[in-house]
Amino acid sequence: MKRKLLIITVIAAAIMELIDTSIVNVALNYMSGNLGSTLEDTSWVVTAYGIANVIIIPMTSFLVNNLGRRNYYIGSIILFTFCSFMCGNAGNIWELVAFRFLQGVGGGALLSVSAMVVYEAFPKEKQNVASALFGIGVFIGPTIGPTLGGYITDNFSWRWIFYINIPIGLLTAISCYKLLPESPTRQKVKKIDWAGIILLIIGIGSLQTVLERGETDDWFAATYITVLTVAAVMSLILFVYRELTTEHPVVKLSILKYPSLSISAALTFVTGMGMFTSIYLTPIVAQRFLGFSPTQSGLLLLPGAITAVFALIITGRLLQRGVPPALIVLLGFICFIYFNWSMSQANLAISFGAISMSLIFRAIGMALLTVPLATLAVSALQAKDMPQGTAINNMMRQLGGSFGISIINTYAAHRVQQHRVDLISNIRNDNILMTDRLHAYTSMFMSKGSPMLEAKQRAVGLMEKVVEKQSSFIGYLDSYQLIGLIFILAIPLLLFFVGKKKNKKILIVSADH
Q1: Residue 38 per-residue DSSP state
Q2: Ramachandran region of residue 293, left (φ > 0), alpha (ψ -120 to 50) or beta?
Q3: Which of 138, 258, 367, 382 is the most exposed place for a label (fewest CB within 10 A)?
C-alpha cells in the first residue's frame, strides 16, 4: 500500500509540472489585459518557465547526488508550490515572469526524479509496465493543460491557473516527506563543477531565450538576440569541452558515447518538436481561424488523451512480449506523420470532430514513441548513469519543443507572406470569380444602407480581410507539413537499431510523454 501511494504521489507531482508547460497558453490574452501589459511582454510568462526547465533538467543527477534525492525533490515541490501562489498573486507582468521562472526551477526536478521513483518501485521484469504507467501520467499533463486552462479562464480567473497547484503541491510534499526514501544509487559529490554550472546556465538560458523570442523580435535585427546567440554558441562549446575533460562534471556528457543513448536522444529531440508544436499550433488554428473558444480548443485534445492511455498500456505489453522497440517507434512516426498530413489538408469549414480524429492519431503516435524511446535510450547504460541519461533525454525533448516552435513561427511567417502574394495576384479585373465576389460584397453593403461608393470601399476592405485570413490559415497549415517532413527525414535513424539484440535487463527511466 505504501508503494502504491508513493507512485500515485510522484506521478501527481509530474502531471502538475507538465500541466504548467501548456496551461497558460490559452490565457495569455486575459493576463495581458488584466496586468496592463502587451501580449509580447506577457509571452515571457511561457518563455521564463521553459528557460528554467531546460537549465535545471540536465543538472538533475548532480543535484540529487549533492543534496540528496529526498531533500531535493521535496524542496523542489515546496518551491514550485510557493511560486505558484506568488504567480497567482502577481501585481504586474514582470513580477509574474520572475516567479514563473522560479516555478520552472522547482518544476525541473518533478519529471526525471519522479520517473526514477516509479521505476525503482517495480522489479526489472516489470519495467515496461512501470514505463507505461508513468507514461499515462505524464502524457495527460501537457494534453489536458489547454483544456483545463481554457475552462478556468472562461469560468473563473487566470490566477486560478496557478492557485490550483497549491493543494496538490502541499499534499504531494507531505506524502513524500512520509514515504519517499533516499536514492540507493546516490554518489557523494566530491567537488562541485562551478564552471560547468555557470556555462550551462549562460549557454542554455541564452539559447532558449533566442529560440523563444527570436521570431517575435525579428531575430538578428534585435541587438540582444545577436548578443545572446554569440553567448549561447561560445558558452555551449566551452561547456562541452569542460564536461568532457573535468574529473567531476555537472553533466556527464561522456555517456553520449553509447550510440543507443545518442541516437535515442536525437529521436527524442524530433519527438519533442512534434509534441510541442502540435499543442502550440492546434489551439492557434482553432481559435484564430475557426472561431473556437479556449474551452473548445482544449477539448479538441481530450479524445486523443483518452485514446493514448490505452495505447500506452498496449505498447508496454508489446514490449513485454518481445516486439522490437524500433518497430513500435516506426509505427509511432507513421501515425504522427499522418496526423500532420491530415491537418495540412484542413479548410475553414473543418468540423470539431474531424480535428479531434486527427489529434487521436497524434496521441497514438506519441504513445507509441514514449516507452520504446525510453527503452532504447538507457539500454546500454549502467545503473549509476541512469539518472544522467534520463536527464539528457528529457532535456533533448524540451529543446526539441523550443526549436520546433521557433522554426514553425519563422516558417509560418514566411509562408503567410508568400500565400498573400499568390492570392493577391489573382485579384484582377479579368478574374470572373473575383469580380463576382466583389460585386456580391458591394451589394451586401448597399442592402444595409451604404451608398455605392462607400459600399465599394467596404467591399474592397472585406476582400483584403479575406485574403489576410486565407493566407494566414494556409501558412499555418504549411507548418504541419514541415513537421511531418522532419519526422520522415528522421526515420533512417531507426536503422541503427535494426538487428540489435533485446536486452532483457533494461531499466527504463525516461519521462518522455
Answers
A1: -
A2: beta
A3: 382
Count of alpha carbons within 13 Å of 163, Cβ hemisphere only?
Answer: 10
Q: What is the pLDDT of residues 121-156, one digit of tens each?
A: 776 666 666 666 777 766 677 777 777 887 888 788
pLDDT in tens, 388-446: 787 788 788 878 887 888 788 888 888 988 888 888 887 777 778 778 888 888 888 88
| 457-497 residue pLDDT tens | 888 888 888 888 889 899 989 999 999 999 999 999 988 87
Which cell goes with 491?
526515420
* CB-based contacts of 484, cutoff 8 Å, min separation 6: 336, 337, 339, 340, 341, 344
What is the residue type of 182?
E
Residue 510 has pLDDT above 60, yes or no: no
The most distant pair of C-alpha atoms in the chain lies apart, rounded to whole Å, by 84
How far apart CA 397 and CA 236 sit, in angstroms, is 18
Amino acid at position 46, single letter: V
CA distance 442 to 457: 8
Q: How far apart are CA 24 and CA 26, in angstroms?
A: 6
Mapped onto helix, strand or coil, the DSSP state of residue 207 is helix
Helix spans in 108-186 (H)? 109-120, 127-155, 160-163, 165-179
The pTM of the full predicted model, rounded to 2 decimals, is: 0.81
DSSP code, position 384? G
Q: How many CB atoms lie within 10 A of CB 428?
A: 9
30 SS3 class: helix
Q: How far is CA 368 from CA 135, 322, 389, 448, in A?
A: 10, 15, 20, 56
**Closest C-alpha among 339, 394, 390, 401 to residue 364:** 339
Element (H, E) at 299: helix 294-299
> Distance between CA atoms of 277 and 282, rounded to whole angstroms?
8
Taking a C-beta distance cutoff of 8 angstroms, is the pair 173, 78 a contact? yes
CA–CA dist 97, 104 (Å, integer): 11
**Long-range contacts of range 279-284, CB-CB < 8 Å, 24 or more positions apart?**
279/22, 279/25, 279/142, 279/143, 279/145, 279/146, 280/25, 280/405, 280/408, 281/343, 281/408, 281/476, 281/479, 281/480, 282/343, 282/355, 282/359, 283/25, 283/26, 283/146, 284/476
For cell 473548445, name the residue. 296
Among candidate residues 114, 52, 50, 49, the one with its CA nearest the CA of residue 77:
114
DSSP string, 307-356: HHHHHHHHHHHHHHTT--HHHHHHHHHHHHHHHHHHHHT--TT--HHHHH
